[in-house]
Amino acid sequence: xxxxxxxxxxxxxxxxxxxxxxxxxxxxxxxxxxxxxxxxxxxxxxxxxxxxxxxxxxxxxxxxxxxxxxxxxxxxxxxxxxxxxxxxxxxxxxxxxxxxxxxxxxxxxxxxxxxxxxxxxxxxxxxxxxxxxxxxxxxxxxxxxxxxxxxxxxxxxxxxxxxxxxxxxxxxxxxxxxxxxxxxxxxxxxxxxxxxxxxxxxxxxxxxxxxxxxxxxxxxxxxxxxxxxxxxxxxxxxxxxxxxxxxxxxxxxxxxxxxxxxxxxxxxxxxxxxxxxxxxxxxxxxxxxxxxxxxxxxxxxxxxxxxxxxxxxxxxxxxxxxxxxxxxxxxxxxxxxxxxxxxxxxxxxxxxxxxxxxxxxxxxxxxxxxxxxxxxxxxxxxxxxxxxxxxxxxxxxxxxxxxxxxxx
Length: 408
Description:
The protein is of the alpha/beta class. It has three domains: about 1-100 and about 230-315, Rossmann fold; about 115-220, no CATH class; about 320-405, GMP Synthetase, Chain A, domain 3 (2-Layer Sandwich), CATH 3.30.300. It has helices spanning about 1-5, 20-30, 35-40, 45-50, 60-65, 65-70, 95-100, 105-115, 165-175, 185-190, 210-220, 330-340, 370-380, and strands at about 80, 90-95, 125-130, 140-145, 150-155, 180, 200-205, 225-230, 235-240, 245-250, 255-260, 270-280, 285-300, 310-315, 320-325, 330, 345-350, 355-360, 385-390, 405. The strands form four sheets. It has a twelve-stranded mixed beta sheet, with helices on both faces. The protein has a four-stranded mixed beta sheet with strand order 19-18-17-20, with helices on one face. The protein has a two-stranded antiparallel ribbon with strand order 1-2. α10 packs parallel to α11 (about 210-220) and α12 packs antiparallel against α13. The longest helix has 12 residues, at about 370-380. The relative contact order is 0.13. The model has no long low-confidence stretch (mean pLDDT about 90).
């Protein structure tokens, strides 16, 4: 991981219309080891025919995972890390401790670009990750890469704390260098009035609303870094200092394209789907993987600070919060957590103006589990909740929004 971090400044840029040599080498090294690659590359030369390589999708990760994991990769360190389900299309993504450990140097690179240069040792708390869910794993640990500095993941749900103000006091007493979380959790943290002033905030998983960015910057006087990252890809890009609407490609071991519906690479400035090749997860090599997100890229720009291409996100995953009949907030992640226990390929949850919930599910037969699922979702929303389940094939093309709050 130290070697990975030390090399982040190298080979960061590539020009439009071409595929870096390192990417071609990476693909060829896996051609004989990954069944999906072997089929996709049949009759093609990656250096010459990269655009003709079929794209990989979330459905492939769901349905053909055994063909994507390299046949000779030892499985003794495999971790199953399910995606949060914010797209409505959850994946049981395999991962490796080293790939997860590389988040540390990637985050530190982002912070340095935003002017935060910090020395860490065992006396420091590097970060507190805040969540705001009904149920999630919480823990504390130390990060060896950061000199043994501490880390804690906490849940801001009131039921997780002994009394009012406990969560805010805990975070302030920990005094972390930076605080991370999705916009829903960061918004709740701001509402709680945490007194500690971190050196930075790191927002991830969902699009960061400009008004929340302004609130955090105004209240705490520190940079707010927006990280574009997916469970299956890891970090992809981070918001540029002074220009938060523009992201810059973060790792130098991925290749990012913008493609049209047919998989053709699009020129600079033209909007399409964000497509990723490469990565550091040995169990999940990605080849022209469609993220489901839209954006545009610019390769030629002022490269005095960083030559990596720029990325503008379009229709990014916006935070959606549902309300219980009692008036309390419900995080959609809790809905996904319940649904992914059932044989459902894809879901969409719509909360109507009267607070009733319509849940559309892509599945074989609702009759085998519908009653149990409706009961669990009703329990999540509490007394007075009304839940309606509907089977759907989501026809019509495109990825449906996973969560919709009518009137929000």
